[in-house]
Write a structure and sequence with these properties.
256 residues; alpha/beta; Rossmann fold; 6-stranded mixed β-sheet; 4-stranded antiparallel β-sheet; 8 helices
């Protein structure tokens, strides 16, 4: 593979927790390449290491051994301060829960990391970008609302705006629809699909096949080992049903 097309890569990535007796091996030698502009989905049974893999790829958690590279830059060699700066300026995050500050309105929650990561001479552009994102994802009208005054779907769209405000190279999503009903889940996945069409690289963990079908490729973990990968191709709403049926058949064969 042309290295210029690789956004993220892990080699022999392992994570062991020594606080348990015996130690718990959560990841065991994961080799993974994420292509530029790819929408990669990570699946597996509960306890398979899905979220640990995402946190290790994003530098939120340090691996026990192995390496992770973002556009060829080795993340494990960075200091905590350097890694925090990479996450702020080169990565975006959407979690199952939005983790917004209750004393700020929706717009200010989105603005805060954008302004923190922007040089002083680029802050006006960052503010304009946040307002444009809120308009694009249909939440401009709740800009001044408190976070308890809006729906879960609106909050997750706000999370996507926050993740994109710094123009990240890669967006990480950990069960972004896990706390939503099917209607709100569809709203959030429509938003992430739009983000992907813009060319943003996405790495997402989910347990839901109806969500996973939006990806270009699905990888399956079992006991911390990457056991298989399935190419899905470009998402098309018209063929969503057949696409999900084929994914479910594949997952059943893997014991999902």
């Amino acid at each position: 593979m042309n290295r210029a097309t690789v956004t993220l890569e892990s080699q022999e990535l392992s994570k062991t927790y020594y606080s348990t007796d015996p130690p718990t091996e959560v990841l065991r030698g994961v080799d993974l390449t994420v292509r530029a502009g790819e929408f990669l989905v990570i699946m597996g049974a509960s306890g398979s290491g899905k979220s640990t893999l995402l946190y290790s790829l994003s530098g939120m958690d340090r691996p026990t051994s192995g390496s992770v590279a973002l556009q060829g830059r080795q993340l494990e060699s960075l200091s905590d301060t350097e890694m925090s700066n990479i996450r702020l300026t080169r990565m975006g995050f959407v979690f199952q829960q939005p983790h917004f500050l209750s004393n700020l309105d929706v717009r200010d929650n989105i603005l805060l990391p954008a302004l923190k990561g922007a040089p002083k001479d680029q802050r006006a552009a960052a503010i304009a970008r946040v307002d444009a994102l809120m308009e694009r994802f249909g939440i401009a009208h709740i800009a001044g609302h408190g976070i308890t005054q809006v729906s879960g779907g609106q909050l997750q769209r706000a999370s996507i705006c926050r993740a994109l405000a710094g123009e990240p190279l890669v967006l990480f999503a950990d069960e972004p629809t896990g706390a939503l009903d099917s209607s709100m889940s569809g709203e959030v996945m429509d938003a992430l699909t739009d983000v992907h069409r813009d060319g943003t690289t996405i790495v997402m963990v989910t347990h839901d096949p109806a969500v996973a079908v939006r990806g270009d490729r699905v990888i399956y973990l079992r006991d911390g080992v990457l056991v298989e990968s399935r190419e899905l191709g470009t998402w098309n709403a018209e063929s969503a049903g057949r696409r999900e049926d084929k994914l479910l058949e594949w997952l059943r064969k893997l014991g999902f």
